[in-house]
Write a structure and sequence with these properties.
Low-confidence stretches: 2-55, 183-192
Strand content: 25-35%
Distance between the termini: 22 Å
CATH topology of the largest domain: Immunoglobulin-like
Radius of gyration: 22 Å
Helix content: 10-25%
Strand order of the largest sheet: 3-6-11-10-8
Shape: globular
Number of helices: 3
Structural class: alpha/beta
Number of strands: 11
CATH architecture of the largest domain: Sandwich
Order of helices and strands: EEHHEEEEEEEEEH
CATH class of the largest domain: Mainly Beta
Mean pLDDT: 75
CATH superfamily of the largest domain: Cupredoxins -  blue copper proteins
């Protein structure tokens, strides 16, 4: 029996092979492997799901096809918020991270370039703000949002690929938009972390089967 994990297209896939081996109690290991692989596949598939309909309606379809959008991240308790430019998403580093953020009026948003995905800019759909087109790591652009409302923006050269974002100012704006279950680690959502943890636990169990089989054989001997 062997198994390995391979990241393909931003999702985690688990692949495994096995000979038909039986432990001392007569339980067929192949049956367990097939069941575990099926459960892991269902869980992992969830990370590639598109945003729910209610989330899309809050922004009039702005986030259609934006792979890293999973709701609005609440940053209303911060006076300065940083958004990555060139974050992982949309089949490469063509995303803003987080894609959507809620802030309080008077908050300054700082966009910081990761240096990945080529040159990017930050351009508001309303024309309220616009950065230069650059690709340098650590480059920053900032804007202070004083008025309540929703400000949609995008990267001009990668807009068609889904590199879009939104800043929601105030508690009442885009009130029907779901909140993102954002983690404090690398910007991953709670769903992604649970999926990765669950898949890891299954793989650990699979690799532990040969050891259990060897112990069983020693006891029988």
């Amino acid at each position: 029996m062997s198994g390995f994990i391979s990241p393909i297209g931003g999702n985690l896939r688990i692949q495994m092979t096995s000979h038909t081996l039986r432990s001392g109690d007569g339980i067929e290991r192949r049956t367990f492997l097939k069941g575990a692989a099926g459960v892991a596949g269902v869980a992992v598939a969830g990370t590639g799901a598109t945003a729910p309909v209610t989330a899309q309606s809050a922004f009039d379809g702005w986030f259609d096809g934006v792979s890293n959008y999973d709701g609005v991240v609440d940053r209303t308790d911060e006076s300065e918020v940083t958004i990555e430019v060139g974050a992982q998403g949309n089949d490469g580093n063509f995303a803003f991270g987080p894609a959507a953020v809620r802030i309080a009026p008077g908050t300054t948003v700082v966009w910081e370039w990761t240096g990945k995905g080529g040159s990017h800019d930050v351009v508001a759909e309303s024309g309220a703000f616009s950065s230069e087109l650059v690709g340098d790591t650590g480059h920053t652009f900032e804007y202070t949002f004083e008025q309540a409302g929703v400000s949609k923006y995008a990267c001009t050269p990668h807009k068609a690929m889904g590199m879009k974002g939104a800043v929601v100012v105030g508690e009442d704006a885009a009130a029907d938009a779901p909140a993102a279950a954002a983690s404090a680690s690398g910007g991953r959502s709670l769903t992604e972390l649970l999926t990765l943890g669950f898949a890891g636990a299954i793989v650990a169990g699979l690799f532990g089967l040969p050891l259990a089989d060897q112990r069983s054989k020693r006891r029988e001997a």
